[in-house]
Amino acid sequence: MNIDSETLPVTNVEMQHERRVAIFDLLEENEFQPKGSEKGPYIVGLELKDGSRLVLEVKRSTGLDIGRYTISMTPFRRIIKDYFLICDSYHNAIRTSTSAQIEAIDMGRRGLHNEGSRLLSDSLRNSITVDFNTSRRIFTLICSLHRRP
User: Fold this and answer.
1) Residue 133 has pLDDT above 80, yes or no
2) Which of 29, 40, 43, 116 has the fewest CB atoms below 10 angstroms from its CB?
3) Residue range of the domain that includes 85
């Protein structure tokens, strides 16, 4: 998985950690297959264009170009904004709140993450097959492209 360094914002320690974990998990286990293509391995590049389009550039591990897939980020804006707000609340709560309060915030955070993951799967359904866990990890990377410190 490659993320375009030109569009990768400087971010906080928590998001950097989440990005590294998502990439590690994607490399360890994923279900990702462009329609009409044989099973991978693939090299996938992520790039945010104009803040409004996500481009996935897919190649075989041999370098053979499979294709570029573009999805609009417009449907993701509210989810990403809400996700960042609740992540900030979660990280603040860890320092000052009770375990019950932290758990409640974390449930909301996971719910928004799941919602973004389902939206991503739906957005890709005509071009790329992904399982839920792969979609979750890619959604984490999409958020890392939007995150500002």
Assistant:
1) yes
2) 29
3) 2-146
